Amino acid sequence: MSEVMAQESLTTPWLSVIVPVVNEAATIQACLTALSPLRDRGVEIVVVDGGSDDDTVALAHPLADRVLVSVRGRARQMNHGGRESRGDGLVFVHADTRLPDRADRLIDTALKGAACWGRFDVEIERGFALAGLVGWSMNRRSRLTGIATGDQAIFMTREAFELVGGFPDQPLMEDIEISRRLRRLSAPACLAPRVTTSARRWQQHGPLRTIVTMWWLRLRYWCGVSPWTLAGEYTDVR
Question: Are 45 and 65 contacting, i.e. CB atoms less than 8 angstroms apart?
Fold first, then answer.
């Protein structure tokens, strides 16, 4: 693993945003431009590329503080970004997800309370008829179970990240598993302001098929089926 580009600030940021990417040339500029108000307030923006063969890295460079290269795999990329970043707080954001306004201040307030980790409610872009219902059900399920998904921009203190050993090195359900581990440290801060995420996953395979597939995969994961087995049956467009 090596660092491709870096723009070091003179002060240590309190929060780092980690964005794992692979072939996100179509979305990376919009993603990082949306994060620019946080960067202006001293938040560190770290992009972790998993070996893109498009212009992702070149496009990310002017809009990020650091652009790193990692072994491909979302968990591995997020771990690399988390370990190489400098903030005392970490938030992991998909390239097709937009944080709410003043997300840094919302996270700061949440982590100064009893919780050492948390997530936002999510809203899916209106790309299909059931988008609102799917988003509502994701938020409701998360509040009831204390389990977050990567679409909800999981955040945590660096201490919590290190205590649980980062994301588990597995190809699928890494968000579910780290939630289970973090939940042993504290209940999550479930923030009502919403992140907005792309509908492309649901549009690609159809919303009903995607919903059924994800529920089936999660059920089998909870029953002990290996994430490597499950990963062979499902390919996330991201």
Answer: yes
Residue 203: predicted pLDDT = 67
84 Cβ contact list (under 8 Å, min separation 6): 3, 46, 66, 68
Residues in the chain: 238
Please say if the pLDDT value at position 154 is more than 70.
yes
Residue showing tokens 């990329």? 77
The CATH superfamily holding the domain 2-203 is: Spore Coat Polysaccharide Biosynthesis Protein SpsA; Chain A (3.90.550.10)
**pLDDT for residue 187 is more than 90:** yes
pTM: 0.89
Per-residue pLDDT at 128 exceeds 80 = no
In 3D, which of 92, 236, 95 has the Cα closest to residue 172? 236
Radius of gyration of the chain (CA): 17
